[in-house]
Amino acid sequence: MVMDYQQMYQKYQHALKLRDLSVDENYTLLNEIFNRKILDSISLNTQSHFIPYLSGIKEVFYFVDNEASKIDFYRDELDRIISEEK
Asked: What pLDDT is attached to residue 44?
């Protein structure tokens, strides 16, 4: 799927905001607490309905880190789109 400039620019802006969030002191602390206190305490005795909930929270942290890491890619794609339009 080829994205137009506006779509790629929105993704780039979104990634910039998520990068800012990912280095925010409160976010970092929350992420550390989640990993240290919650994930480390899961065992075979944990109730099964609790696991999807934790998985969803883990996905949020993963999404922020993953999108924040794509800033250079989005910037390169924006440059490519601009150069193709000229």
From this structure: 75
